[in-house]
């Protein structure tokens, strides 16, 4: 049942499509009760249509209980054998049953369960890598493996299909925003390690160092909050703690010492980087955040993708007649445009932009290789192994042209054929023996990377990703 159809029910009268004037004639008591049911459906309908949780949640049980009670009340309406009342009662029951069915379908939908499983996997990952070391009195060491694992989970979440259902979009968006915030926190920790100054430097350094320790604890608390691993703290409480630390730092007298002043500034920046993630408790309640059909940033991205498609078509058409169309300056300007698109910390917009960038880069790399192949003038003494790499690159260029215009699915024969041919080129490169020639080693390494990028791009085109 589509959300649009459900929402169209709200406000639809039961009495054959014509709302009667209550002031002009006396209504039958049964019809009056059905009108009361209709008003309650109007109240519960939007709540059902945006509920994004699971069956074991309190809100689900409340909605199910109230809808079931309405259904019982509709069933108890005495129609006295009148056809008009029987029809109205039937329509009322159908609307309530539709809401109950929609509520259960979304809470048990395979995509909703996939979102929950990925969220739990992220919880386990963060608990082991960040929360538990901090609780044990140590310091969480953010490894590259942890950062990569979080990024992988984010990509898997973005690929969960929602079929346009608002509750599923909302659930996916809420899970993504929290995991992206965790990613930002842990990557920020690895990027900027503010080192404490010696307490002999200035009288204020001791207190700044103490604040640094509190900030380190707050970082782990924030990660635990974002991932639902903290039963005691709240975002509001942690926000107050961090704000108080800012006030205390601001009150410190560090005049006359540039090193201490800069140290305090770094600590303040770390606190502010944590505070920006503490507004997520109500995140996802605004449908504009996850229903992106009319989002301005998405429109900009789609406009760029449309232009890239046009340029790609021209490039392939010219290549088909042995010519080389070179729109690289415009493609570079499109990359700049994409870089300036405001993602508003929205992971779905961020992923849409990332994929659009890859589409532009694929055309640029295709042009670069084609130009290199056309301009190539091998010397008579060129090593045979180096020539073999270029032969493979020529085949890869032809295959990339097919990949660029591929619009099929993963199960299509054309996809499997392209995948097989690209894999054969990788095997051909693996068989090339550089025989100690450094130029051949570099060329083969670049060709392998190029082939792998084509395979990844082909895979991205078939994953049926949605906003």
Short description:
With about 475 residues, the chain is mainly alpha-helical.
From N to C, what is the helix and strand string?
A: HHHHHHHHHHHHHHHHH
- Rounded mean pLDDT is 83
* Number of helices, where a helix is a run of at least 4 consecutive DSSP H or I residues: 17
Unreliable sequence segments: 1-25
Overall 3D shape: flat
Record field, number of beta strands: 0
Q: Report how far the terminal alpha carbons are from each other.
A: 20 Å
Strand content: under 5%
| Helicity range | over 70%
Largest pleated sheet? none
> What is Rg?
30 Å
Class derived from helix and strand content: mainly alpha
Describe it.
The protein is mainly alpha-helical. It is 70% helix and 0% strand. It is flat. The N terminus is likely disordered.
Supply the key terms.
0% strand, 467 residues, 70% helix, mainly alpha
Annotate the secondary structure layout:
Layout: H1 3-9, H2 29-50, H3 58-75, H4 83-107, H5 110-135, H6 144-158, H7 166-191, H8 205-226, H9 235-251, H10 258-275, H11 287-290, H12 296-320, H13 328-339, H14 347-375, H15 384-404, H16 413-430, H17 438-461
